[in-house]
Amino acid sequence: MQRNRPPSPQTVKVLRALAAEPARWRYGYDLGTEVDLKSGSLYPILVRLADRGLLETSWEPSVDSRPPRHLYRLTGAGREFVAALTAAHGARTAARPRPHRRVSEA
Amino acid sequence: MPFFFVLLLAPIGVAIALYRRNPRRFLDGPTEDVPLRLLRWAISLLSPQRAEWGQAMLGELAHLDGRMRRMRFAVGCTGAALTLPPWGRAGAGLWAMTVVTAASFAIYAGLVVDFGLGTGGWILLAVFAIICAGYLLGTSALLRRSGVALPGLLGGVFATLVWLGLSGLTAVDQVTFIPSGWQKGVTMLAVPAAIGAAGALWRRDPAAGRRAARLAALTAGLLELLYASIAVAILGGGGPPDQDGGYTIRGTVSDRLGNNIAHLAINTVFIALVGWAAAALTGYLVRRPPTPDAPLAADPTRET
Predict the structure, then answer these.
(1) Which end of chain A is flanked by fewer CB atoms within 10 Å, N or C?
(2) Domains in chain A, please, with CATH?
């Protein structure tokens, strides 16, 4: 059974980075550098996102006899998930009571 | 004395086997850098469902320059490959071995605190923690290999039961047992050889047999370590005096803990080496083509 735990802060960072330009295919190393995640943390996140159908993968054709690179971008479901995540975050922020300003600060 | 000859001759045997496997590489050295070799090894541990992700890591590494950058990337990917699910039945094996190791460590730490073994005791405890972590890492890597988990774990349990059968089950038996010649022959030669041969026959593959022998060595080492640690915890500084024991309670406890670690090392080395040789010999005698178990066989992105 698929567990739907709330995503970790690192996963949210990856999702937001991918959602910034949803149509663009991204390389794993560049994505890790952008969100400041080591490969050991990044790849398990990418695997989980792909397993949940939130991430689309593709292979870039090989050049200079070097092996092809794997490319990543959000699926439609992934974009919806990020939108829902952003909305939920906004709702939580709005619902949080603002701290009262003290008279001396006014 | 004959057992020291085994230890002395084993590296020569390993060198001959490596030469026979790939003479050019043995003479010329590796043609790939360390990060690439590390990553190739790591992705061979991935389950077939995750093979594509291994190729993705290899593809990314091929486009990275700079030794340190490549090394950091490869080390990170290795950590990911070692932990990525699915584990299947191997996950249960790793959990069991983790519990066994943690229990041994907890007993050791408790004895260091309880008997006030001092700075030396704490240093030994740190060394013990590193050894335990290394054993668990090796166990997790071997458990992920196809067809290795069951024969390896069963082999380890078998070796432990034979050892306990010969030594006796009580705490006193554990701290005073010194095997006779034939008992050494059984525990250090016959049992490891049987494990290696059985592992090779299990999959009709000498490579699987060698890995099963290594896993059995780690498993038996950790299981016997736990039993021996419990024995020391029961006896403390009491019980019969050791032949080479300390002259104080602290010294005796420290000595017994040190003996356990020495037994762990000797046990592991002998089961792994003799089992390795037996698996290789069995493979040679059976002469069946090995079954590939690594996804690298169908590697479409091999770096040139």
Answers:
(1) N
(2) 9-89 (1.10.10.10)
